[in-house]
Each structure stands twice: as structure tokens, then as C-alpha cells.
Amino acid sequence: MKLYVTRHGQTAWNRENIVCGVTDLPLDETGMEQARETARKLKDTPIDRVIVSPLLRARQTAALICEGRDLPVMIDPRIKEQNYGVYEGASRFDEGFLNNKKSFAIHYPGGESQMSTAARVYAFLEDIAQKYPEESVLLVCHGGICRIIESYFHDMTNEAFFQFN
């Protein structure tokens, strides 16, 4: 399988440095242009199927990338962003959020741990590798999920993991 991975375009909360995990927000104008730019960059790339997070910002990004192409698009909840619980809507610089982010095993209050998020993403990757071994697959997901996918294929220190963008 050949795998391409992209993050959704920008939302208002991304622009404002607000934690946005499973909160379902649309792309802003910049995000829509980012998705169109990704489409331009991928226009000559052979893609057999697109798998997208169920969150609106990812679905909008996928729709713009797929515009004018006849591609099967599948929604898979295993690549939705991590649920940050009580920190959804908080500043990305909130001390509690930053402290929780340092531990892979601790669940965000009312949300998921990084470890449980990684487990579902790793299971997803193993599943699609078995189902589509000869295909080129584009994933449209989220920054945290892209980071986990990178860690699946490459060993990363904790510092490198958190700095991956």
C-alpha cells in the first residue's frame, strides 16, 4: 500500500490557538484555500481511495481535494482527532492542557489518553494495510493523528513526537 496523509485545513480555533479535538468546526477561508492548494499538489498523484475523519473540517478538506476526481471516499471514525475532554475550547497554552500532554497514559478529564488514541490509529493502519495492499490511499485527518501515524512508521523521542507538525 502507498499511503498519503494530510491534515485538514485551518479552522477559526486553529487560527486562535484554541484546543480543537472532537469539536466539530468548519474550515475558515484560509483552510479552504489550503485544501485547494493540497488538491493542486495532488492532482497528478494516482490515488485509489480516500479515507477521511468524520469531523466536518476533514470532510470539507477531502471534498475540496477530490473535486473533479472520481474517487471513492470512506469515512472512518478511527482517524478522528483525539478527544481532549475538558480542554476542548481552551487555550493551547493552558497549563493543565500542556501538563496532560506530557503523559501518554493519562486520559484528559472527560477525554482520551494519547495511548488510547494511538491504539485506535495503529489498529486502523494495520487494517487498511491488509484491506488495500495494492492501492494508493489518501488519509485526510488531523494534526494529532498525523503525528501518531508518523510515530507508527518511525521511532520518535517524546520531544520529536510533540514537535512534529
Task: Report on this structure.
Helix 2 (29-42) crosses helix 3. Helices cover 43% and strands 12% of the residues. Strands 1-4-2-3 form a 4-stranded parallel β-sheet. The chain has 7 helices and 4 strands; from the N terminus they run βααβαβααβαα. It folds into 2 domains: 8-15 and 24-47 and 58-75, no CATH class; 77-135 and 145-165, Phosphoglycerate mutase-like (Rossmann fold). Helix 3 (56-66) links the parallel strand 2 and strand 3. It is an alpha/beta fold and 165 residues long.
Provide a brief overview of the structure.
With 165 residues, this protein is of the alpha/beta class.
Give me the secondary-structure topology.
Blueprint: E1 2-7, H1 12-15, H2 29-42, E2 49-52, H3 56-66, E3 73-75, H4 95-101, H5 114-131, E4 136-141, H6 143-153, H7 158-163
Parallel strand pairs: 1-4, 2-3, 2-4
Helix pairs in contact: 2-3, 5-6
Percentage of residues in DSSP E strands: 5-15%
Radius of gyration: 16 Å
CATH topology of the largest domain: Rossmann fold
Uncertain ranges: none
The main sheet comes to: 4 strands, parallel
The CATH first-level class of the largest domain comes to Alpha Beta
Helix amount = 40-55%
How would you write the strand order of the largest sheet? Answer: 1-4-2-3
Shape: globular
Structural class: alpha/beta
Order of helices and strands: EHHEHEHHEHH
Number of strands: 4
CATH-scheme architecture of the largest domain: 3-Layer(aba) Sandwich
| Whole-number count of domains | 2
Distance between the termini: 23 Å
- The helix tally amounts to 7
CATH superfamily membership of the largest domain: Phosphoglycerate mutase-like
Give average pLDDT, whole number.
94
GO molecular function, one term: phosphoglycerate mutase activity
EC number: 5.4.2.11
Keywords: Glycolysis, Isomerase
Organism: Candidatus Acutalibacter ornithocaccae
